[in-house]
Predict the structure of tRNA threonylcarbamoyladenosine dehydratase.
Amino acid sequence: MGGESSNRWLLIGVGALFGSVSTIALLKLLSRCNTGNKVNNKTCNSYNCSRIIGKDNLSSEGRMVCDTVPDGLIASDLLNDEVVSEHLTRNIQFFGLESQRKVTESFVVVIGLGGVGSHAASMLLRSGVGRLLLVDFDQVSLSSLNRHAVATRDDVGTPKALCLQKHFSAIFPECRIEARVQLYDASSEDEILSGQPDFVLDCIDNIDTKVALLAACVRRGLKVLSAMGAGARADPTRIRVADIRESSTDPLSRAVRYRLRKEYGIDGGIPAVFSLEKPKAKLLPFKGSTGEDENPSDYQIVPGFRVRIIPVLGTIPAIFGQVMASYVMTQLSGLCVQTEPVVNLDLDHYIILHNRLLEHEELLYGSAEQVLVDVEEVRYIVKELWHGRSARDQSQKEVGRKMWRSVNELMLVRWDKAKPATVSNLILLRFKEADDHESTTTENIKEKEPEFYNMVTSVLKQAEIDFAL
């Protein structure tokens, strides 16, 4: 009986201690939320900013601007705050403290805040990005609610940028959020892309605006990630991140690529999120209030922007946005992530490469006894280590359909000729490159091409780790 009584009092004591700690943390958070947001040195909450358009909220051009700046904390100090560090504890465990600090000190611009952009911005905020610029000229509509990240019915009719800012300030009030109810175009380029952003997210539907933004980012040397068409699709497993030149099945990206090449001489080098799935439905005819087919351009706020005529399953643009946020997060933190090739070789191609290796070994060494890989391991080497490309051409531009074209000129050869052909000693090269490789040594490569040598040894080291060699 005495033991039960002691245990009871022990539990009560632990519960009280835990409750006190939680209460202190909650009070600090509430105190910061109540005093943290300022607009132009005037205390203001984001809800009021989205509905009150006074002189302090209008630019000289008449657009609405609202800037939420946290009190008493700057980006470099955020992770020292106990509430913020607990909010981001899982990220810190994943990235490490210093890598998460890079994210927290980052500045990201998100242009286009619909189904894709709102989800991308939301996850960047939740992941601790310290400064966000949110840009969109449009308002929340009832039809937005099937795919928007945070909008509610109460937000219908309010600008998307200010809607996000209002909700974001309740999620991560320490983030510096600037909301611009503004259309991106040539006249607003300097204003929106200034400030040296660490990343720009293009989540725009309109082709003219999209092309202008991407060209401006390339010209300014800014990192940009572009979202292609997410409407009329249903298969989340076919979403990819790759160079825009590989997004061949997407009608929007086809038009964007053509315009970039024709008008700006840009033939790739821009990462994009797109789906390999062909659209499940075509653009629908626009019906007015009478139920009759009408001209959508009669209802457009801005010429060229589509009006309610794209069938959209809300999950797909949301996943697009999540993919964009994940890509940007890993880039900002410095985490190396190799995206999967757009088009995978089928089993017959791996069999061809395996047979080619056996024939090469017999020709060069008189037998294939030291080939210690099977077809499945060849698949791992080609796909996971070398991404279907020559070890001497590991740029992101050489992915996708080119893998099909190039398989007839690729082969596996030993990296170090003194060691057997194992998963950790095989590189993928073109025929001519393989001949050149066979005529040299790893020591010679290390001396003359140290960067290439280090890259290859790092990749092969990963094979040792994966196979516990």
The chain has two domains: 36-333, 347-466. The first strand starts at residue 38 and ends at 39.
